[in-house]
Amino acid sequence: MVVSWAPVEIIDSIGSILALLLAIGCLQQAWVWYRVHREDIFRHYILLFTIAIVVFAVSRSCGHLIKQILILSGREHIWHMLSPFSGAINTATFFVIFAFSLYYQRVKIIHTKLEEYKNNLEEMVALRTAELEETNFSLENEVTERQAIQKALEAERERLTVTLRSIGDGVITTDIEGRVILLNRVSEQLTGWTQEEAAGHPIAEVFNIIDESTRLPQENPVPKVLKYGQIVDLANHTALIDRNGVERSIADSGAPIRDRESRIIGVVLVFRDVTETKRLNEELNKTQKLESVGVLAGGIAHDFNNILTAIMGNLNLAQHLINPKDKIYPLLEAADKASRRAKTLTHQLLTFAKGGNPVKKTANLGRIIRETANFALHGSSVQCLYDIPNDLWLVDLDPGQMSQVIQNLIINARQAMSSGGRIMIKSSNISSPEKEMYPVLDPDGKYIKTTITDEGPGIPAAIVGQIFDPYFTTKEKGSGLGLAISHSIISKHGGFIKAASHNKGGTVFTIYLPVTTGEPGSQTSSITPQSAIKPASGELIMIMDDEKMIRNIAKMMLETNGFEVITVKDGEEALKVYKQYQKALKTVSAIIMDLTIPGGMGGKEAVTKILALDPRARVIASSGYSNDPVMTDFHSYGFCAAITKPYLINDLLSTVSQALS
């Protein structure tokens, strides 16, 4: 019985198709499972094993299907040609599957070891990373600390730099070899060296000092500090010569710079410019000396004025008692003239001593100029030319102080012309001075303009604005006070003084003084004419003075002219005598009181007590201190008039007449 293969072949074909579909489905599932955990070696193995099975299934199924198709189509010979290849593929696939199965365990072991190594490596990397992170953290902390330290150092350096530059003294630091390391700003200014220029130079080059007195080089303090390790101060009279040759007085000290182990590593010099301080101290010493001299001069002038009062009074009285044609009269006149010069001298001493307000009198400036200039130029080779009109207006001035101004200017001019020359003095009446040139003057006022011109070298433009400053002088032995006093006197007279160099050479001093309201005057004598004085008719005059010779001469002057006179030596006696005359119902017409009574009551105190007894009392102030403020403003102190010692007969009679009128 022949069995048909058709069902078998059909079933084989269907099985092949189903096997092929199943293989593809398994491959899809294996791929999905593999993607879930790609790192799993087992999943790798299943995926590869599935691929091998699929390859085997595809090869086997496709082979069967191709075989059936070729047999059915009568092409069996083609199958016989292909069948060896199909079998080879199946066999190869089988061996692959067998190989996968055989080496899976080894691969798994290797993979496990690789995983372990990987894990260990990760742990090692993690550990090393942790160590590196710790090291990095330490480095970051160290860098942060270094940055903080660097910032602190920079801040400290900046603070030190600012401090050094803010110090008002010069600071220089050197190394152990005495070479400059640092200069602050003040030391740069004082030495003329910059920090960049001075760095590395020997200190002696930068800090060049000399002895001001001997002009010899002064020993630099840096070597001493390095040698002895102690603070060293500079000697007095040390001067610093800067890089440009400018000299400054300095005070200086040097101190060692030590490290933590107290080893000397350098020197710091601290110095300051004491030029101005020294100048101020010198001026203070001058002022103190001048004050002492002033007190002495004031006392001498006061005593001398008392003596002059007796001398001039007796001379003047003798002139009035003898005939002007007598042979002795010219001698008396010459002595009187010399006494007047002595009076001017004492007035200048008092002006120097006190510097007070002027005691003004209406006077002719021309006469004062001539007399003072002739006196100042006596015995010199300098000629003085005058251009002074006779109708020069009168001026309210202090004759003594104004004479001092003229004398100072004439002496300056004479000293400027050591080989001789000419001085031109010109005075003129000026109405409405030019406001643009002299803004300090009243543009509607009247002034006397006086110019004093010499033929000397003139005043340098650089110092012309300083010549009226106290203590300013270009002379080696000058005090620098003459022109300052002159400026002060002119200002107190309401005037103006200026100095300039003449365009043809020489110096020109210009003075403006306000005139007295009234008619123009003439150059007449300062002695009041006898006819202008009211005759006395027995009025009782009291004279209070501590100097007996002054009481006597004043008494003779007044008695000679018809007055009755009583004399007392101080304020206490004056009050006592005045009360006695009041009780006796006798009138004391006027009292002449000396303002200053050594050891007793003077006129300043006595006048208030006299006026308390008799408000109608007429009290005249008298003093050898012409600059006393009482003499300038006597009415404010209770006096009705004032007379300055020394005085002449007509001065005394005129003052008494003024008090009685």
TrEMBL record:
CDD domains reported in the protein's UniProt record: HisKA, PAS
Keyword Cell wall biogenesis/degradation in the entry? The reply is no
- Record-annotated Histidine kinase domain positions: 299-517
Q: Where is the PAC domain?
A: 234-286
- From the record, what ranges are coiled-coil? 114-159
UniProt KW Membrane keyword:
yes
- Ranges where the Response regulatory domain occurs: 540-660
Transmembrane feature ranges: 14-34, 46-66, 78-104
**Key words of the record:** Coiled coil, Kinase, Membrane, Phosphoprotein, Transferase, Transmembrane, Transmembrane helix
Which residues are in the PAS domain? Answer: 156-229
Q: By its UniProt entry, which PANTHER family does this protein fall under?
A: SENSOR HISTIDINE KINASE, TWO-COMPONENT SENSOR PPRA
* Name under which the protein is recorded: Sensory box histidine kinase/response regulator
